[in-house]
Amino acid sequence: MKTHSTNYFNTFIEIAEECPTGSGEIPLVKGDQKTVANLQYDIVGTNPYKYTSDDVFFQVFAERNELVKEEYKEAREKFFS
């Protein structure tokens, strides 16, 4: 299986000049479950610069699909194939 990635290297990502937002906000929780945005915010916000985007995307996938650690390796390979 070919592996794909969402990671950027040596890349500066900035907010577009025409963006109407003046500041960031914590994503709102909708209902009784955290949204993808909430989960991503929690991961990145509590561990800045620790994880790649691949790590964050897969961790959210794993949490939402209730995977256990033993399933991570095979599931990650399939997720990025």
Structural class: mainly alpha
What amount of the residues lies in strands? under 5%
Can you tell me the residue ranges where pLDDT is under 50 for at least 5 consecutive residues? none
Please report the number of helical segments.
Answer: 3
Mean of residue pLDDT values: 92
What is the rounded distance between the termini? Answer: 6 Å
Number of strands: 0
Percent helix, as a range, is 25-40%
Based on CA inertia axes, which overall geometry fits?
globular
Number of domains: 1
Describe the main β-sheet briefly.
none
Radius of gyration: 15 Å
Give the ordered list of helices and strands. HHH
Overview of this protein structure:
This protein is mainly α and 81 residues long. It has one domain (1-81). It is 38% helix and 0% strand. It is built from three helices and no strands. Helix 1 crosses helix 2 (53-64). The radius of gyration is 15 Å and the shape is globular.
